[in-house]
Amino acid sequence: VMSILLHGDAAFAGQGVVYETFHLSDLPSYTTNGTIHVVVNNQIGFTTDPRMARSSPYPTDVARVVNAPIFHVNADDPEAVMYVCSVAAEWRNTFNKDVVVDLVCYRRRGHNEMDEPMFTQPLMYKQIHKQVPVLKKYADKLIADGTVTLQEFEEEIAKYDRICEEAYTRSKDNKILHIKHWLDSPWPGFFNMDGEPKSMSCPPTGISEELLTHIGNVASSVPVEDFKIHSGLSRILKARSEMTKNRLVDWALAEYMAFGSVLKEGIHVRLSGQDVERGTF
């Protein structure tokens, strides 16, 4: 499995979660063994000049925090993009580290239907209007090379247009939208046919006192013989042992018993968060 994340340029530089996930990328138990980050960099984010949006030259500079290789590639050159993506995939599979592909491109028609980019980016959009669209640019190159004929190119375009037109026509026949068609649940049987969650009942999760006592005793013992333990810790363990003996529990011991009972069934438990390793909570 290879994880691929698709980002916008302004989001990549501006969202804290991007920086946070880079710092998770190499942590034991959290790593995805390398993620490929593809940044669609239209060079204005929404409508803001990069120099007003961030302090570094490239939106991808945030990836330098983990020394991820960053490929800046001209999106008007599809073959260069393919080459770079192949190198990125090979890097990720060889070294199991994150890698970033920065697709340097432009947005021809503004941010959305309501946006007129000439208001905020007049100079840039004068240049963009002069640009030959990437499809035409690449088609002209392939036709000039003799790789495809003009007729083959036109047939492909017509075929794609036909697919879109037919789908558009079919969409007009749909009178009812079924919410359940849009719901994707990893638990079969979680929703009923109308897309509503079923009422759920929990099976009994209690365990025998004998098993609880066993877990309590294990939780208050030291697994290695003749191991010199810190006096503060030995006090905690002693108190835990006393509680088990007296059929009492505090919050920490209750958690211990819950985790212990799950472990006893052979289910892996991973604790994360502050002070987990020293068992403060």
What does this protein structure show overall?
This protein has 281 residues and is an alpha/beta fold. It has 3 domains: 1-122, 3-Layer(aba) Sandwich (Rossmann fold); 131-164; 207-263, no CATH class. It is 44% helix and 9% strand. The chain is built from 11 helices and 4 strands, in the order βααβαβαβααααααα. It has a 4-stranded parallel β-sheet. Helix 9 (209-219) packs antiparallel against helix 10 (231-245) and helix 9 packs across helix 11 (251-264). The mean pLDDT is 89. Its cofactor is thiamine diphosphate. Keywords: Oxidoreductase, Thiamine pyrophosphate, Transit peptide. Residues 2-179 form the Dehydrogenase E1 component domain.
Oligomer: single chain
- The ordered H/E elements are EHHEHEHEHHHHHHH
What's the CATH superfamily of the largest domain, by name? Thiamin diphosphate (ThDP)-binding fold, Pyr/PP domains
Number of strands: 4
Number of domains: 3
Protein name: OGDHL protein
Family: Belongs to the alpha-ketoglutarate dehydrogenase family.
Cofactor: thiamine diphosphate
Keywords: Oxidoreductase, Thiamine pyrophosphate, Transit peptide
Question: What attributes does this structure have?
Answer:
oxoglutarate dehydrogenase (succinyl-transferring) activity, four-stranded parallel β-sheet, 3 domains, Rossmann fold, 11 helices, 281 residues, 9% strand, DH_E1
Which helices and strands occur, and which strands form pairs?
Blueprint: E1 3-8, H1 9-14, H2 16-24, E2 35-41, H3 50-53, E3 70-74, H4 78-95, E4 99-104, H5 117-120, H6 122-130, H7 134-145, H8 150-171, H9 209-219, H10 231-245, H11 251-264
Helix pairs in contact: 9-10, 9-11
